Amino acid sequence: MTGMPDGIAGIEDLTRAAFEPGGVLSHAADEFSPRSGQTEMALAVARTIETGGALVVEAGTGVGKTFSYLVPALLCGEKVLLSTATKTLQDQLFGRDLPRLVKALGLPVRTALLKGRASYLCLHRLDLARVDATLPDRTSVRALAKVEQWAQATRTGDLAELAGLDERSPVIPLVTSTRDNCLGSQCPNLRACHVNLARREALAADVVVINHHLFFADMAVRESGMAELLPTVRVAIFDEAHQLNETGVQFLGAHLTTGQLIDFAHDMLAAGLQLARGLADWQLLAADVEHAARELRLVVGKMQAGSRLRWTGLAPEQIDAALWQQALEGVNEACERALAALATVSEIAPDFARLHERVADFGHRAVLFMDSCEAGKVRWLDVGQQLRLVESPLDIAHAVQTRLLRADQDEGGGSKRSWIFTSATLGDDARLTWFTEPCGLGEAEVLRVDSSFDYPAQAAVYVPRELPKPSDPAHSGGVAALAGDAAARLGGRTMVLTTTLRALRAIGQAMQERFTGAGQLEVLVQGQMPKRRMIDRFREGASHGRPGCVLVASASFWEGVDVPGQALQLVVIDKLPFPPPGDPLVQARSLRLESQGRSPFNDYFVPEAAVALKQGAGRLIRRESDQGVLVVCDTRLASMGYGRRLMAALPAMRRLQTQQAFDAALDALGQEAPPAGESPMAADTRQITAGAGAA
């Protein structure tokens, strides 16, 4: 697919025609009707594709942003890269939205899906797993057998095809590769490698769907195949772009984990005993590396899992600097001994050459972390069963400006690339500076398109005044009681979003103790079952004789969760989602703002809370027919000056001022319960709107 489609019309004219009544989109989606916001966004994308440059679009839930960028992207006749936030959204875009539009537009477009290597079956690792894997239980043995059977038939090797395989299964790391253990061009299964086949398909395709993690992993290490792909791309579109900065900083720095060292020791021992027995004392060398990793962990001691320690000097805070430096030196020395032994056998098998590269890299990182942090970056230590040593930039602005936008200017010759960034939530000011500043997009064109939903008629927001303050230990109990009472009135249909894991556990436990055994409601708590299964059960609600559901969750459930219809009519947020002030990255960003004479609270904490609050509230209204209530259990939203700014960031829901008004709103929702035995999503799934997508 090269050049413009046949005819004299430009991309903008073709796009406008596609969105008109009776246009091609009316054949691509049931119940399609033109929406002014959707068309406005589509035309802006079309203009940017024609002229080049960067466009940032905040498109409220219900605008239909997916079709707004896909239609002009497909009509432009150029090679297009589409990046999403998660593999789930990737699969939806590739498997549902793109095929519908390609068919409707009648274009000869070749599409491809490209994920990170951990999403694909590694045939070499599968061969090793058959012989060497020590699986923990019978469930894992059965899972491996299922993978082996599927491996005989799959064309893509994408593990998402394998129904019933738990994403947390211990089998997955045994049958997939990482950058560390991949043998690359030396692999005996290179010709049949699913990762390489996916990359070749991507290079040959007109439209390639990737995810943000893959994009930034390649910016960091130039390893994922994007190095060959990106120069051929003329249009790059990032959906769910609000995650770009935090995803990018994970990759554009350096990290070393004790788990990496222990995995390396196990791999070196297995390869040594299998392929070079007697040529080195592999057991001693492996034990040496593993011991060094465990000694590093012991220096930290019994610290609470999940702690993130500041690291401004030669050692993280609360850790003895001399012992820490000694332990890091021990890691480096163990890596050097393994490096020397592997050098003597590197010609025997490609496994040893790759092991040699891995341990050399680990040694270099150990030396890096023995020195002071590089200027302009932040360093910290993540504590859990493993340790994770991290040095990261504060944002991705420099990388975006120098490696993406400036690269266009440096290449010269060809037409300028087009960069489109879109999400339902990108900031709380006209210039969307929450997003554009850390992403280096201060010069980009900015467009804000409001949601097409009638929020005053469809939704209400309530801030209960009688609850304890968020700092009070009794606060979580009060939230659990309020959510429990409301859920009982509604027969479930309630999602409780917490800002911390501590609140998640406290509220989840309190609600399970209240309802378990009574048969009235089922309380689902994040972490007690796989996320996909939990969401599927919540969507079912009180159907087929099962009780209604309450879902208590944190973190990833604040966004990307789409539960339309009557399955979800009450969202309860425990408190305002300010960034944790003790987090090293948060502290470093605050200090930088102070050095610029700016207010960290007004310019960082409040915008962060506004975007997160908007994301959480976005779970409530997903379709034009939805009705619901949002409860924010934080009196600061009503009593503090900054509360007005946060309230303004929310959709224009009607305000409920009293407990009586809240009760009346719940009663009104309760009267809309679906017929007994019918899924609350049944009516909703009969109507598909044009690319509304998950916000």
Structure description:
- The strands form 3 sheets. A 7-stranded parallel β-sheet has the order 3-4-2-5-10-1-11, sandwiched between helices. Strands 14-15-13-16-17-12-18 form a 7-stranded parallel β-sheet, with helices on both faces.
- The longest helix is centred in the middle third of the chain and has 23 residues, at 321-343.
- It has 27 helices and 18 strands.
- It has 695 residues and is α/β, with parallel strands linked by helices.
Key terms for this structure?
seven-stranded parallel beta sheet; disordered C terminus; 27 helices; 695 residues; 13% strand; alpha/beta; 18 strands
Number of DSSP strands?
18
Gross morphology: globular
- Note the beta-strand portion: 5-15%
By helix and strand content, what is the structural category? alpha/beta
Mean of pLDDT: 89
End-to-end separation: 30 Å
Helix content: 40-55%
Radius of gyration, rounded?
27 Å
Sheet with the most strands?
A: 7 strands, parallel
Low-confidence stretches: 2-8, 675-695
Strand order across the largest sheet = 3-4-2-5-10-1-11
Question: Helical stretch count?
Answer: 27
Quick gist of this model?
46% of the residues lie in helices and 13% in strands. By secondary structure, it is an alpha/beta fold. The longest helix is centred in the middle third of the chain and has 23 residues, at 321-343.
